[in-house]
Amino acid sequence: MRFADSVRAGLIILFSSVSFAAVADVVVSGAYVREPVPGRAMSAAFMTLTNNGSEEKVLVSANAPWADSIEIHTHMNDNGVMRMRQLQSLTIPAGESVTLQPGGLHLMLFGLQLPLEESLPLTLCFEGDECNDVQASLRSMHSMNGMHGMHGMH
Question: Is 58 exposed, middle or buried (0-12, 13-18, 19+ CB in 10 A)?
């Protein structure tokens, strides 16, 4: 191997590990997509994002090959009426976790390609063009409790 080739290979390994380390700071657990309401091509995704790094991470987008678009949403109380509101980003403070759950923060999924598979690839992208690929499981609405399973009715 020529010297230039070994330097190039070393740089590729160095930059690959630097990029991976930054993305690896955010650990995603419990990712799932709620089964859509029959006749509707929309749903929501939930998970816990844990930032094990020393700097905050900011989720700016999500995408999936099985959804036309994905938005970051929250619920807010507007004079006694719960309403969804789109967020442009979601900050995960250093050393903390943020949980996306029914009735709170979530990813709103639009234009679903039905039927959905049991395991769904999902890409979460953070500021600085760092992305994290995760697998979300599909959960039946029947397994969800109370009104939380009715989110797709909005």
Answer: middle
